[in-house]
């Protein structure tokens, strides 16, 4: 689904939506659908294709980040245009702020607004990420050394987020908009070289395509899919290991964990820590935690984010609130 013939773009998108919905759990398939629509070609084409595929079941959620002059008027005009095409649309203004830079803050605000826009608990939110977006995500993860979870890219279904267009090129969404007579909005941020993703899109990927004689984006997406399959298998093994190692008081038995392969053991430890309320785990944290099992020498505990310490005593791992430093 990476090529576009004349007159076929809309049909390709409808087929992508149909296949994505068939793969969803039954309650989700039957629920009303929300599409996040920015007015760009990808999300606009997805909105119109989904509405054609699911008449009467689709609403569009337009998030106004308020980061550009005229954004409120542009969002209102998009809602009116979609309404005239038979797609109910609502505008959701958000305030962008917080840690992590502009991109991360805007993403947090956008996703929170889309979650709130769901009309039912089982309603999926369709996002317009394409094959090109997936390739960029894989490259970002590779460059940051974030591990296989990051290189595995975005999932087609990550409740409540559904991404029907991960097998579709941006050229197809633009062609679909042209077929439908829909004018897409080109966000100036998509050409702003201050953003890493923009430079990947404009500079890095075209260079790789040239040097490696094409097919790079598709190859990156295939790699991501293979890594997700491998990751799912390892996660299943880690879940079994974690269940076997759990103690009634909530800790873990080190003797049960230690014979397991490190990749499985670390996933089990990561899951346990996350479900225990530890956030912002890094690779260094996890390796230090794993050393309490795989390289035990009687060492002290591991300081974790959120003011928690992980300690090993009598062959058991347990989390404790860190002791405050002595006064005076």
Automatic annotation (TrEMBL):
Keyword Cytoplasm: yes
Keyword field: ATP-binding, Cytoplasm, Ligase, Nucleotide-binding, tRNA processing
Enzyme Commission code(s) on record: 6.3.4.19
Pfam families to which the protein is assigned, alphabetical: ATP_bind_3, TilS
Classification via InterPro entries: Rossmann-like_a/b/a_fold, TilS/TtcA_N, tRNA_Ile_lys_synt, tRNA_Ile_lys_synt_N, tRNA_Ile_lys_synt_subst-bd
Catalytic activity: cytidine(34) in tRNA(Ile2) + L-lysine + ATP = lysidine(34) in tRNA(Ile2) + AMP + diphosphate + H(+)
Location(s), subcellular: Cytoplasm
SUPFAM superfamilies: Adenine nucleotide alpha hydrolases-like, MesJ substrate recognition domain-like
GO terms of molecular function: tRNA(Ile)-lysidine synthase activity
Domain tRNA(Ile)-lysidine synthase substrate-binding: 255-317
Residue ranges occupied by any tRNA(Ile)-lysidine/2-thiocytidine synthase N-terminal domain in the UniProt entry: 33-203
Amino acids binding ATP: 38-43
Chief location of this protein within or outside the cell: cytoplasm
Functional note: Ligates lysine onto the cytidine present at position 34 of the AUA codon-specific tRNA(Ile) that contains the anticodon CAU, in an ATP-dependent manner. Cytidine is converted to lysidine, thus changing the amino acid specificity of the tRNA from methionine to isoleucine.
Family: Belongs to the tRNA(Ile)-lysidine synthase family.
Stored NCBIfam families: lysidine_TilS_N
Domain-related comment: The N-terminal region contains the highly conserved SGGXDS motif, predicted to be a P-loop motif involved in ATP binding.
Official protein name in the record: tRNA(Ile)-lysidine synthase
Gene for this chain: tilS
């Amino acid at each position: 689904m990476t090529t576009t013939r004349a007159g076929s773009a809309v049909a390709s998108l409808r087929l992508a939506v149909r296949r994505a919905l068939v793969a969803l759990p039954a309650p989700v398939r039957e629920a009303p659908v929300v599409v996040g629509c920015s007015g760009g070609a990808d999300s606009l084409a997805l909105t119109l294709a989904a509405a054609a595929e699911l008449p009467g079941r689709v609403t569009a959620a337009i998030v106004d980040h308020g980061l550009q002059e005229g954004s409120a008027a542009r969002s209102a005009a998009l809602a009116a245009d979609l309404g005239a095409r038979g797609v109910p649309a609502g505008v959701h203004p958000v305030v962008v702020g917080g840690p992590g830079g502009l991109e991360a803050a805007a993403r947090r605000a956008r996703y929170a607004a889309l979650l709130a826009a769901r009309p039912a608990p089982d309603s999926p939110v369709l996002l317009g990420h394409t094959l090109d977006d997936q390739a960029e995500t894989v490259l970002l993860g590779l460059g940051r050394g974030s591990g296989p979870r990051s290189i595995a890219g975005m999932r087609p279904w990550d409740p409540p987020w559904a991404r029907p267009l991960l097998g579709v090129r941006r050229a197809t969404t633009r062609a679909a908009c042209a077929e439908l007579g829909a004018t897409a909005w080109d966000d100036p941020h998509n050409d702003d070289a201050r953003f890493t993703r923009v430079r990947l899109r404009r500079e890095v990927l075209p260079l790789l395509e040239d040097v490696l004689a094409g097919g790079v984006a598709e190859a990156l997406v295939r790699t991501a899919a293979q890594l997700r399959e491998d990751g799912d298998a390892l996660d299943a093994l880690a879940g079994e290991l974690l269940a076997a190692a759990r103690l009634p008081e909530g800790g873990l038995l080190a003797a049960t964990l230690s014979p397991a392969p490190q990749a499985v053991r670390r996933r089990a430890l990561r899951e346990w820590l996350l479900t225990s309320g530890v956030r912002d785990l890094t690779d260094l944290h996890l390796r230090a935690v794993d050393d309490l099992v795989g390289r035990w020498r009687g060492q002290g505990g591991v300081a974790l984010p959120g003011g928690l310490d992980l300690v090993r005593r009598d062959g058991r791992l347990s989390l404790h609130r860190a002791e405050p430093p002595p006064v005076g």
